[in-house]
Amino acid sequence: MTEMTEKINRPENFSEVEGMKTASRGLRGDLSDQMENRVTGNVNEEGKQLIKFHGAYIQDNRDRRAERDAKKLEWAYSFMIRLRIPGGDVSAQQWLGLQESCNNKASGVIKITTRQTVQFHGVVKARMKPTMKDFDALGLDAISACGDVNRNVMTGSNPATARFHAEVHKYAQKISDHLLPQTKAYSEVWLDGEKLPDECETEADPLYQNRYLPRKFKIAVAIPPHNDVDVFMNDVGLIAVGEGKNFKGFNVAIGGGLGVTHGNEKTYPRRSDIIGFVTKDKVLDTCWQIAAVQRDYGNREDRKLARLKYTLDRLGLNFFVGELEKRLGFKMEPARNIPAFTHRGDAFGWVQDYKGLWYYTAFVESGRVIDENSYNIKSAMKEIAEADFCGFRFTGNQNVMFTYIEEIDKNKLDKILSRHGITIETMNPTRREAIACVALPTCPLALAEGQRYLPEFVTMVETLQGKHGILDRPITTRITGCPNGCGRSYLAEIGLVGKNPGKYVLRLGGDYEGERLNTVYLEEADETEILSVLDELMGKYANDRQGTESFGDYAQRTLFD
Ligand code: SRM
Ligand code: SF4
């Protein structure tokens, strides 16, 4: 350990969560007993932390707090469960099973997340085990979807990007499996698996040991020229490198992350650094060892400063890479030339892969699978799954792609979509590409609205685009209800970051390709102030833009450069 690391990582200063992890006997704690305790819908502090590693969070409906307080009742507690679906693929049968489970045991609204998986909200304690058993029966799980471990691994969704897309896509599953904790706690707590006797040692885990990582850890794989996973904001971003038809390996970027705490100057969003190239046979070990270096050097005293991005900036990239190469037993090759990224939004509508199969991406506003305003995506997905002629792929932009469709079935899909009002042709691209995080009412950290505000806000952005005659190209618009950045608003051309109810930090100047972080323009602004800035800037952009310059590039050039 370096002197710097010793100074910060003194066990007596470790955060409380560190103690909970090491004392948990492989993430078991007393979770089973807590789930049986029906006196409260809540769990204790240790339970709150441990259950994350099993893919779940305790929440309450914040809209109902006042009513519950007035009646002197406990808050309306329930759990959110996030599944682990590396690369976002499920079968039609799995989708039907998930939707049925969500209808019967949760809120009925499945949420597609910004990391290519799905969440259930509103699962009360008594329904937790039955819901986890539903997942298991479908061949799915929620292991490590949250917690201080490697999270759901993302991959570019669009099969038309490269001949080797299908081969690269499989790496999401491979990496996720390779970095999965060894503990059998999940099976024990949720699936009535065999109990580890009290006198027995917990399962040996060479990666996570008994301390796990200092903080969450995220990996995404991008396949140029499409950056639909926002590869540069992950702890590890892998960019697929090919030669013609052949897939060779990955350029590796480390140290991306977006979470910030308002008022804490030590926190910041960070774009990752490319550290070199590895061949495909070495990538699993590379990801494992990056996580292991972070395990050993990451900050375990202050969780706000525990992500890999801070470890890198504290120790220096050279030190980190040197340590990584020592453990790997080889030197990273220089990064290879790759095609430039061109966009991040999904490839809406039909695309074809190199084998001739078809894929259709449909828009799901903020990932909420719900029938609303004659746009009946929930019913459409049910009917498509029942017809059983394609798979489903969730995208990192919270949308759904219907996958592996034979030419002969294209018409069938078109008809079902049209019957349920699912169209992309008439929708403004800015709306299709907009993202918002969950925020209120379930997210305990939300300071302002997220997905509930997005439709209204996008309408106002579109109106301004129309006024200035710039509806010709989309403007990446993203809202998060707090500075944690779950909707990746730090990479948007127009980014709103919740600060107080109805008030947002306005960030401008991100690019369309997801290469550049945006910059704070207004520290705290309400809707009127935000729209006034956008109105003026769009007016100038309409008149002064250079060639095909994007709104984000124009904002960067004229406001910040
Ligand atoms: Fe997130 C915490 C929702 C993607 C950064 N995130 C949360 C929690 C669990 C709140 C909590 O800790 O109690 C939110 C649950 C809300 C709810 O009611 O469902 C939440 N995050 C989400 C999702 C569902 C947003 C969405 O609308 O799609 C995304 C789930 C992804 C998944 O399937 O795994 C989601 N979160 C992200 C992303 C984007 C990404 O990874 O591509 C980020 C920014 C990237 C990053 O990690 O740096 C992100 N979430 C955070 C953070 C800040 C982490 C940090 O380094 O500071 C927190 C808070 C924390 O960890 O303490 C957080
Ligand atoms: Fe909640 Fe904040 Fe994440 Fe939005 S950005 S889901 S408000 S933690």
List the helices and strands and how they pair.
Blueprint: H1 3-8, H2 16-22, H3 31-36, H4 45-53, E1 56-60, H5 65-70, E2 77-82, E3 89-90, H6 92-105, E4 110-112, E5 118-123, H7 125-137, E6 154-155, H8 165-178, H9 185-190, E7 219-222, E8 236-243, E9 246-254, E10 273-279, H10 283-297, H11 308-315, H12 317-328, E11 349-352, E12 358-362, E13 368-369, E14 371-372, E15 375-376, H13 377-387, E16 391-394, E17 400-405, H14 410-419, H15 429-432, E18 435-436, H16 454-467, E19 477-480, E20 494-500, E21 503-508, E22 519-525, H17 527-544, H18 551-560
Parallel strand pairs: 6-7, 7-8, 18-19, 19-20
Antiparallel strand pairs: 1-2, 2-5, 3-16, 4-5, 4-13, 8-9, 9-10, 11-12, 12-17, 14-15, 16-17, 20-21, 21-22
Siroheme (SRM) binds at residues 57, 59, 80, 82, 113-115, 117, 119, 151-152, 216, 218, 233, 257-259, 307, 367, 398, 437-438, 442-445, 484-488.
Molecular structure report:
With 561 residues, the protein is an alpha+beta fold. The protein has a domain at 431-560: Sulfite Reductase Hemoprotein, domain 1 (2-Layer Sandwich). It is built from 18 helices and 22 strands. The protein has helices at residues 3-8, 16-22, 31-36, 45-53, 65-70, 92-105, 125-137, 165-178, 185-190, 283-297, 308-315, 317-328, 377-387, 410-419, 429-432, 454-467, 527-544, 551-560; strands at 56-60, 77-82, 89-90, 110-112, 118-123, 154-155, 219-222, 236-243, 246-254, 273-279, 349-352, 358-362, 368-369, 371-372, 375-376, 391-394, 400-405, 435-436, 477-480, 494-500, 503-508, 519-525. The protein has a 5-stranded antiparallel β-sheet with strand order 1-2-5-4-13. A hairpin with a 2-residue loop joins strand 20 and strand 21. Helix 13 (377-387) packs antiparallel against helix 14 and helix 16 (454-467) runs parallel beside helix 17. It is globular. Bound molecules: siroheme (SRM) and iron/sulfur cluster (SF4).
